[in-house]
Write a structure and sequence with these properties.
mainly alpha, 18 helices
Amino acid sequence: MTDPSPEPADSVLGDPRAASTVTRSIDTRGLSLRMFAARGVLVNTVFDVGISGLGLLRGLVLAALLTRSDYGVWGVLVVSLGVLARLKVVGVSDKYLQQDEADQELAFQKAFTLELLMTAAAMVPIAAALPVVAVVYGHWDLVPPGLVLLTMLVAGALQAPFWVYYRDMNFVRQRSLSAIEPVVGFVVAIVLAIAGAGYWALAIGVVAGAWAGALAAIISSPFALRWRYDRGSLRLYASFSGPILVATVCTILLANGTVIAANAHLGLAGVGAIALAGTITAFATRVDDLVSGTLYPAICAIQTRLDLLRESFVKSNRLALMWAMPFGAGLALFAGDLVHFALGEKWRPAVGLLQITGIVAAISHIGFNWDDYFRARAHTMPLAIVTVASTVTMLGTGIPLMFVDGLTGLAVGIAAGAVVHLVLRAWYLSRLFEGFAFVRHAARAVLPTLPAVAVVLLMRQFEHGQRTFAFALGDLTAYALVTVAATWLFEGALVREAIGYLVGGRSLMSEPETSVGAPTFTR
């Protein structure tokens, strides 16, 4: 794959003056769409940090107030029912964001109807699974709170009006309303825990929050909530959501198959190591989630403009990789120090797993948001194909290797699945964006991290005797400083451009900013 032309040097979402056809309006309040989207990332970051902090505080407070057995009941319910609940997430909201029907109220009502149908369909197997879970774990007291938690699915469906604000990129309104759920859940859970409600404090708190969010969505809905069943829409949404459902099932099989096999061969200690690696590497996706969540409605708005889609993909991926690539490479470099100086030597067998998964996390972020662009163009079959192929590879190699070489063997299987995913992702992107040089894009992502890795490896050559905390801290400091310097050297122009969007200045890589419409975005 070659790319004879240089990568675009305009804004993250391109020059809106290239537009010619009006198909969607987004009130950008006089800003260009690229600046509006960049500020949306900032808004979502603030809300995400606040809500995550609230969740952490709730967990710590409830851990102090409740017994370990109460937490155990809750943990079983979250794991058992949470996996099944993912089957409901099959892309109805994504398809609603992607469509551009003339009557948007009717489009919303049809999507809302399908969401209710999917919710009803999902509740049946989850309810049927509750007695099975009770038998497996030997605790029939799991059933009553499980039935109460089922009502969360209905409450979630009734929060569909938030989609409208999301589609219009009205992130302040969307996130303010959606924040009602965690705040109410926090207050109710803490009050009930203090009152001695045990695990019911967790269950009722979560459900109360969900229904408070649903009530807020209903009251603030810009469209009437009506039943609008349409067979044509059902077929359209099914063709869009079917591959997403396949990908979701693969994810569930991968997670559960890995844990079951690890528990059978390595015991709970092995499962704990896998959970630890997942928890640490998941931290690298925080920036991805923020960028993807903010840009998806924007790329849906420009779904017919391949030139703008390509540019937004390249630059948003480069921005996210400035965090993900150094983080993953740093985990591979400092996994041993993390275990020795922070986690404890009991995690020593997990070092190899942490190192390999760190590298996997880094390379997996190259083109991480590719699926958003295929969903925005209503072409979701590649998502299923890529996920099936990578899942089969990972399970087919990782589990047998785990029985041969423990956690390190499993990590090799994870890496093999990631490579398959990356190769297929590159192929599909080359078809979507003709002439897109994925290899060059990948090299550009890796380049800023290489000097930092080289410096740390060189410094370690001059270390003698037992490795101390001072040595580890010195290596880490050098790694961080060189990473920042190299990133500024190689991607400084893009960083300045992104900062310019946030503070309202000019783009240093494009023509002067212009507002997008007055006040709507026109493409």
